[in-house]
Amino acid sequence: xxxxxxxxxxxxxxxxxxxxxxxxxxxxxxxxxxxxxxxxxxxxxxxxxxxxxxxxxxxxxxxxxxxxxxxxxxxxxxxxxxxxxxxxxxxxxxxxxxxxxxxxxxxxxxxxxxxxxxxxxxxxxxxxxxxxxxxxxxxxxxxxxxxxxxxxxxxxxxxxxxxxxxxxxxxxxxxxxxxxxxxxxxxxxxxxxxxxxxxxxxxxxxxxxxxxxxxxxxxxxxxxxxxxxxxxxxxxxxxxxxxxxxxxxxxxxxxxxxxxxxxxxxxxxxxxxxxxxxxxxxxxxxxxxxxxxxxxxxxxxxxxxxxxxxxxxxxxxxxxxxxxxxxxxxxxxxxxxxxxxxxxxxxxxxxxxxxxxxxxxxxxxxxxxxxxxxxxxxxxxxxxxxxxxxxxxxxxxxxxxxxxxxxxxxxxxxxxxxxxxxxxxxxxxxxxxxxxxxxxxxxxxxxxxxxxxxxxxxxxxxxxxxxxxxxxxxxxxxxxxxxxxxxxxxxxxxxxxxxxxxxxxxxxxxxxxxxxxxxxxxxxxxxxxxxxxxxxxxxxxxxxxxxxxxxxxxxxx
Length: 557
Known about the structure:
Elements: H1 16-31, H2 46-59, E1 66-67, E2 70-71, H3 78-90, H4 93-96, H5 99-119, H6 122-133, H7 136-142, H8 148-168, H9 172-186, H10 217-244, H11 249-268, H12 279-288, H13 290-308, H14 312-330, H15 343-357, H16 361-388, H17 390-400, H18 404-421, H19 426-453, H20 456-465, E3 472-474, H21 479-484, E4 489-491, H22 498-511, E5 516-520, H23 521-527, E6 534-539, E7 542-547
């Protein structure tokens, strides 16, 4: 019997679509996952969500989130559930606060690739994913322990489901998936309904849809709305029933805050983040949607032609993105992250044009110039801080416990290497520079800045200053102080006015004569004697002190 023939290496080939997915996954992991496990949660939002998830695991109460034992009404619990599950499985806050964002971003990339391949081809699908990974905003939020990567994934699934029905259907199942994803997006963050805006640009291309309006459309619409409400009801209905039967004013306030203040009121009558109507166009898109922004001279004429020809793919994608940006521009309260859910789909709309641009020298020159400007800006920052304003550098180093000169120099060298490695190919040079930036962020900035940003250095100072068995209370506290505390702490509420917290703290000190309170300078000046306090220095741009009952100035309580 003859031995089996060895496989011919030339015959062992990877499916092209599989190869594309491997490329996208590899770049995504390089850009995003390299930071996981290298840092604790950083303010302002990461410690809040991580603390809520930690308290869910510790208390066993996953339905009504708490922060420092006080109900947390600002966001629905979906994202904190995900963090709590990972924390339960791994026992690591460092992993749990970032892993859900990574997984959600991989899902978003997968949905963009799938839709690009179905509407055009796998080349367009790959380019759309590379555009998305080259966008600073997408990677920044994917690397953050915040809600936005998750709500973007839910919205992406909603858009994907609607496109499968409208352009590749009719497919009632995918239509209902779109509505369900919108509902789950709503109980992640109120703006999860955004995919439904897709049905406005539909009016421009009714004759070109795979799922034209018919006598059956009304029942599909009703089924969709019912599905959306059913997804919301997974959390909403039990929460309302429990609150109604509790006769608990705190739970009633939680329900009213999360259903009204944090949704409609936050949009129609915001109380912070005030920006002009053009904020996204001038302050967000040019820097954070960078590949799309420098492609606009080629994209706008092409999209104009596509609209005139009523290409339903471009009309629905670009039309929906414009509606999302317009929706958030109308409200006076704005943050750059609000328009993140639109970014994956504008990248997909741009990818067919990019396919042709890759053959143009002018486009390669533009991409190479952008990459060179990023590297030059870092070099200029180093030269300025090193030779022209070293005092400013020293101030920043004292404030953030990180030398900005060495950081700028390392980032310059890394981006210069990425630029040089792919100099002849403009888009690759740009991606090389972005890779260098994210790797520098993970392996240089994280280890050096984490102790300060996470509050670990502050709480270490607290531990060194306190007697071994002394009880510790917090006044006007931050979430990271509880996360990084090395002993059990007492607090008097987060939403309670700081003056009242100080009064309650004084009462606590009278009952705990060996106890200490950690507080900030304004609270010290209001109620305590500075010469009887322990100065812990600056952290998070605030001065912190420890006081005991001997520091009571007799001015409060």
